[in-house]
Specification:
The chain is α+β, with helices and mostly antiparallel strands. Among the domains are: 106 residues, Ubiquitin-like (UB roll) (Roll), CATH 3.10.20.740; 244 residues, Rossmann fold. The protein is built from 15 helices and 24 strands. The chain has a seven-stranded mixed β-sheet. Strands 1, 2, 3, 4, 5 and 6 form a six-stranded mixed β-sheet that branches. Strands 7-8-11 form a three-stranded antiparallel β-sheet, with no helix packed on it. Helix 7 crosses helix 13 and helix 8 packs across helix 14. The protein is elongated and about 95 Å long. One of its GO terms (molecular function) is metal ion binding. InterPro entries: 2Fe-2S_ferredoxin-like_sf, 2Fe-2S_ferredoxin-type, Mopterin_OxRdtase, Mopterin_OxRdtase_4Fe-4S_dom, MopterinOxRdtase_cofactor_BS, NADH_UbQ_OxRdtase_75kDa_su_CS, NADH_UbQ_OxRdtase_ferredoxin, NADH_UbQ_OxRdtase_Gsu_4Fe4S-bd.
Amino acid sequence: MALIRNPFDHDLPSADSPRVHVQLDGTWVEVPLGLNVIEVARRFGKLIPHYCYHPKLSIAGNCRMCLFEMGTPKRGPDRKPILDAEGRPELQWMPRPQIACATTAFEGLGIRTGSPLAESCQKGVMEFLLANHPLDCPICDQAGECKLQEHAFDYGKGRSRFGEEKVKKPKRVDIGPRILLDDERCILCTRCIRFAREIADDDCLGITQRGGRNRLSIYPDKRFASNYSLNTADICPVGALTTKDFRFRMRVWFLKETKSICVDCATGCNVTIGSREGFVHRLTPRVNEAVNSHWMCDQGRLGFHPIHSKHRVLEPARRGEAGLFPGEWPLVLGQVAESLRKLEPPSLALLVSARLTNEELFLVQRLRDLLQGESEIFTEVVPRKGEADGLLRSDDLNPNSRGSRILGIGAGGEKLPELRKRIEEGKVRALFCLHEDAVSAGVPEELLERLSLLVWQGILADKTSEKAHWVLPGASFAEKSGSMVNRAGQVQRLHQAIPAPGRAKEDVWILRGLILALGGEDLGQSGPEVFSKMAATTPAFQGLTWPGLGDQGVSLPAEAR
C-alpha cells in the first residue's frame, strides 16, 4: 500500500519499463530505460561513489563525485549505429567525464566506472572536498558511517597538497529542537535542503555566501522543527548534521544492530535498533518501500526512551498490608492462576493493549477461552488517537490494532464505558490489565479499590499498578520477538535486541505460564513458536510462516484484514 502522501518517488523506472542494452565495464547488460547510471552499476554489484544523489530525492548533480567515462554508439553516414561482429554497437568514448546521477540508460550507452579517466576525476574531487574539511574525525559522531571517510580511503590521495589555512565556518549551530549543524563539515551536497523541501514539506534550509565560503544555513527567524528533521542526520553523508539525542553517546561500531519495527503508531515503520550491553541507544529507519520508504518520524525515532525509565517495574510482586512484596515467578504465576480459576467468568474483565504482538494477543485469546467456558468474559482494547500528518504518522497510535481485531480481542474501545458501568454495578469484580492503565482508560481509582482481584501486567508503573493485587513485569518492544499487523495489513516482525531488565519477562513467557498453570495447552515458549500455532488456527494467518515473513513483512489479502 502506498503512503498517504507519497512524495518519495523521484522514481526509479517501473518493472514494466522498456528494456535497453548498455555496456557496463566491458559487459553488455539489460536494464530499464531511464535508469540512472548509479543504479545501473548498483544492480550489478558495482559502486559509483556519490554524495548528493539519493534515490528518493531530486537530482542535484552538485558533488561531482559520481563522474564516469561515457560512451555512445558510433553512427554511419545513414545515422544508424555501426555494429560489431556480435551485432552490438561500436562505442566512441567522450573525452570528458559525465555525472552518473543525471545520466540515464539508453540503448547503446557505454559506462566505464573504473577507467583511468574516471578514477583520476574521482581522486580530484576528493582532494577538493577534503581541502577545507576539518580534521575532527576522532570526535565526529559520524565516524564509522561517514561516506567522506570511507571514500577518502578508496579514492583519496592519502596526503594533502593544501598548504593554506582552512576556511573557518560556524560549529554547533542549533537549527532545531532536535538537531545541530556543524558547517565546517558540510560538503554542500544539499541532501538536507531537498529533503526538507520535498519530503518534510518544510522549506527552511538553504546555501548562503559564495565560492569557498558557501555554507548551509537556516532561513532567518525559522527553526527546523519538522517531525521528520532527524532523517537529515541519516542522509547527511558527513557529520554536518547530528542529533541532539544521540550526539556523543556511543560510537556506532560498538552498537549491535537488530531489525525491528516502530511501535509508536499503526504505520509500523521498519527500523534498526542500535543497542549495546542491554541499553538501546537509537532507532534509525530501515528501507521498506511498502511501508515507510527510507524515512521515519522523529516521534517514533525517540519513542524508545521509556524502556529505560526509572519507573520501570522490575520484579513480580503481590500486594500485602505493607505494600508490594516481591515473589518468585513460578509461585506468583501459580497463585494468580488459582485466583483467576476461582472466579465466575462473567465477573472477570480483560483490558488488553493493542500494543501487544499477535502472539501475545493469541495467548490472551487462549487464556480467555480457558477461563470463560460457556460464559463470555468481557474483553476490550484501549484506543489511542492522534493526528495523522499525511506522510507517515497515523492517527491510530496503537501499532497492532488490526492484529487485535483479527484475533477477536476487543472492539476498538467501544465497550470501555460499559466496563466502568459493570464495575459500578458489581457485575465485574476482577480485572486483568495487560499493558494498559485502567485509570487512563476511564475507570476511576475508587472503582478499582472495589475489585476483589486486580492483576496488572506491563512495563511502567501507573495508577493501576499502584492499586493492583498482583504485578507482573513484562517486556518492551525491544525485548521481545513477535509480529504485528500495520494499518495497511502488512504482517511484520519484531526481533529481540536486548534482554528484559531485572526479573521482568517476555509477555509470551508470562502468558504461557498462566495457561499452563490453568491446565491449558503449551503453545510455545517464544514468539516464533507461538506464531506457528497461531498461523495454523487463525484463518487470516494461515499459510504464513515465521521465516516467510522476512525482513520486509507480508501483506495480508484484503479479505483477511
